[in-house]
Amino acid sequence: MKKLFFLLLLLLLQSALGQNRNNVWMLGGAIAPTYPKFGIDFNSGVVDTFSVFRGINFFITNASICDTTGELLFYTNGDYIENRNHSRLLNSTNFNPTVTGDTIYGSNVPQGALVLPYPSHPDWYYVFHVNGESFNAHGLNNYEPLELRYSVVDMNLAGGLGGIIANKKNISIINDTLTLGRITACKHANGRDWWV
Questions:
Q1: Which distant-in-sequence residues (6+ apart) come within 8 Å of 103 by Cβ?
Q2: Residues 148-190: tens digit of each pLDDT
Q3: What is the DSSP letter of 90?
Q4: Residue 166: which of 179, 157, 176, 175 has the closest Cα?
């Protein structure tokens, strides 16, 4: 009985690892463009770090997505999106026009972006992001998110490097004062949809 239970547990754990959507994390702060940035790769089953030269920096916001085999598709710092070749994703210029970001660090909103698979299109991905304003309180610069927005990336564009679909860019979902960042998701009980 114990062996059967262990075997079932092992099979369940193996199926839980089958998605691989979070296997590569792109990280690295705002350092000179001539210095490499870094990332973490979980594909081998052992945590591995790597360095890469790329244009965008991360400070507070970062999100990335892999395909089901664990290969990096694209990533964002909340202001810019880069493809797996570390160049600007097609049609991603001003995908999140906001004053809560800057050209050095990206978005200054904690958990200000989230990438999820699009349920009915296997090659499409939602990029949820917040948009806001800057204000000064007691001599400190603060940020207030005003909108939750999304853009849709189609990985069939740009020869398989992906791009934002023209009529699905920077679409407002909630237009109200929001909690600062903290965008997170939970998979729906139907196994297909997501709660954001």
A1: 79
A2: 889 999 999 999 999 999 999 989 888 776 776 678 888 888 8
A3: B
A4: 157
- Phi then psi for 5, rounded to 5 degrees? -60, -45
In terms of phi and psi (left: phi > 0; alpha: psi -120 to 50; beta: otherwise), the region of 139 is: left
Tokens coding 32: 């000179």
The DSSP code sequence of 135-187 is: EEETTEEEEEEEEEEEEEEETTSGGGT-EE-GGGSSEEEEES---SS----EE
Place of tokens 């839980």: 16
Q: Are 63 and 27 within 8 A, CB to CB?
A: no
3-state SS track over 4-71: HHHHHHHHHHHHHCCCCCCCEEEECCCCCCCCCEEEEECCCCCCEEEEECCCCCCCCCCEEEECCCCC
| 130 DSSP β-pair partners | 148
Q: What is the DSSP letter of 96?
A: S
Q: Give CA 135 to chain center in angstroms.
A: 26
pLDDT of residue 73: 94
- Token pair in block for residue 65: 């997505």
